[in-house]
């Protein structure tokens, strides 16, 4: 097929212009922001130009449709609050180029997609989670972001573009290319990774309610300081996890909102997120139990109250064996001895797609192992090699 690597790179750089920010090649393009919606409209125009049929569903997922029964290739185009230019965008533009080239060559049928809110402004992998039926739209609509906006309110900003949800049966499988977002490929001198499985993830919010008071006149022994409760919780949790986790298990307190957040006031309330990831579903459950028990015990021990929000997440997912084999064969043909099978410690839309159709992923190196940061980057030669390998596998699987 007439792949055009320069066209692919040009589109990738143009997509970056929507929300370009910060040093290096940084992007601020959160789901449903003005930059995100503008980027999706631009992508729809690019799809139309090459003869693909653009289709927005009620979540804002954007498909470029090639036919009634096609292979789906893509990723997401939304970013973290401070993100890089390749996270998600690489897979979207690769899908566009491969679908476009297939159409120019008269087949096979390959469609492309940019899923909405993969980065979790609302929920976890929200767009693909709802489309694949793992999450009900009514439930998702009630989710809020860190500023209190509801998903229902934000997706109304795209209402004029919205069509129906596409049937899953319209597609015969899914391929996603992504930067590794870690250091392994670069450190080992490898050029490509074929993903074997994707870890599961859990995410929840916890609130501790203390007593707001004067920071100068309230004796330490009488304080019910919400931040001190959080500090004690973090220390206790790390200790209690020691006999449960493995070296590959990770957990993060990533968002903290302290009230009233003033230097002369004993904090009366703290709301924070806890996220944990592992490839073993049973371990994720055990960690959830420990988190809840620890939160309640630490809060009670400090004379404060706790409120535990709902637990959201995605189960660990294995990639399709046949799809892995085609990616491996393409990698060996184009980069002999320079690829390896590997798990993904990051979450991707392919985890949801794998529950409803054959799915697989391809990684290219991340310079310095950096991602979710403005200085995220990958050499353009590595991007093009990934495109070529993904294209080779897509042709075999869609043909």
Notes on the structure:
The chain is α+β, with helices and mostly antiparallel strands and about 400 residues long. It is built from 12 helices and 17 strands. The strands form 3 sheets. Strands 1, 2, 3, 4, 5, 6, 15, 16 and 17 form a 9-stranded mixed beta sheet that branches. Strands 7, 9, 10, 12, 13 and 14 form a 6-stranded antiparallel beta sheet that branches. Strands 8-11 form a two-stranded antiparallel ribbon. Strand 3, helix 3 and strand 4 form a beta-alpha-beta unit. The longest helix is centred in the last third of the chain and has 21 residues. It is globular and about 75 Å long. The termini are close together.
Keyphrases for this structure?
about 400 residues; alpha+beta; nine-stranded mixed β-sheet; 12 helices; globular
Shape: globular
Give me the number of helical elements: 12
Helix content: 25-40%
- Tell me the total number of β-strands: 17
Query: What structural category arises from helix and sheet content?
Result: alpha+beta
Secondary-structure blueprint:
Elements: H1 5-16, H2 34-49, E1 53-56, E2 62-65, E3 70-76, H3 89-104, E4 110-115, H4 126-131, H5 137-141, H6 151-155, E5 171-179, H7 184-188, E6 192-198, E7 200-209, E8 213-214, H8 226-241, E9 250-252, E10 256-259, E11 265-266, E12 269-278, H9 281-301, E13 305-308, E14 312-314, E15 317-318, H10 321-334, E16 339-344, H11 350-353, E17 359-364, H12 380-398
Parallel strand pairs: 3-4, 3-5, 5-17, 6-16
Antiparallel strand pairs: 1-2, 2-4, 6-15, 6-17, 7-12, 7-13, 7-14, 8-11, 9-12, 10-12
Helix pairs in contact: 1-3, 3-12, 8-9, 10-12
């Amino acid at each position: 097929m007439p792949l055009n690597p320069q066209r692919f790179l040009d589109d990738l750089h143009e997509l970056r212009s929507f929300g370009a920010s910060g040093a290096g090649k940084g992007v601020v393009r959160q789901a449903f922001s003005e930059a995100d919606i503008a980027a999706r409209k631009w992508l729809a125009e690019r799809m139309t130009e090459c003869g693909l049929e653009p289709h927005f569903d009620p979540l804002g997922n954007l498909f470029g449709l090639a036919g009634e029964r096609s292979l789906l290739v893509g990723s997401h185009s939304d970013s973290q609050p401070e993100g890089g230019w390749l996270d998600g965008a690489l897979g979207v533009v690769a899908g566009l180029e491969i679908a476009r080239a297939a159409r120019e060559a008269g087949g096979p049928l390959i469609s492309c997609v940019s899923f909405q809110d993969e980065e979790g402004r609302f929920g976890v992998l929200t767009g693909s989670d709802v489309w694949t039926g793992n999450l009900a739209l009514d439930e998702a609509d009630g989710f809020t972001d860190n500023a209190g906006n509801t998903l229902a309110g934000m997706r109304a900003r795209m209402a004029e573009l919205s069509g129906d949800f596409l049937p899953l049966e319209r597609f015969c499988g899914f391929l996603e290319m992504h930067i590794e977002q870690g250091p392994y490929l670069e450190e080992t001198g490898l050029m490509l990774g074929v993903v074997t499985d994707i870890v599961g993830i859990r995410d929840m919010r916890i609130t501790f309610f203390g007593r707001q008071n004067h920071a100068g006149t309230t004796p330490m022994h009488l304080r019910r300081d919400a931040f001190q409760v959080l500090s004690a919780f973090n220390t206790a949790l790390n200790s209690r996890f020691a006999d449960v986790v493995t070296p590959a298990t990770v957990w993060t307190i990533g968002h903290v909102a302290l009230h009233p957040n003033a230097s002369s006031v004993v904090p009366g309330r703290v709301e924070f997120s806890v996220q944990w990831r592992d490839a073993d579903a049973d371990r994720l459950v055990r960690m959830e139990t420990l988190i809840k028990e620890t939160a309640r015990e630490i809060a009670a021990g400090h004379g404060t109250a706790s409120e535990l929000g709902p637990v959201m997440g995605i189960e660990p997912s294995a990639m399709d064996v046949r799809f892995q084999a085609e990616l491996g064969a393409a990698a060996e043909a184009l980069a002999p001895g320079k690829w390896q099978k590997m798990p993904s410690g990051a979450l991707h839309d392919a985890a949801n797609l794998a529950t409803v159709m054959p799915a697989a992923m391809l990684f290219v190196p991340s310079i310095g192992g950096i991602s979710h940061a403005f200085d995220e980057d990958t050499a353009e030669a590595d991007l093009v090699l990934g495109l070529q390998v993904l294209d080779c596998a897509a042709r075999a699987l869609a043909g």
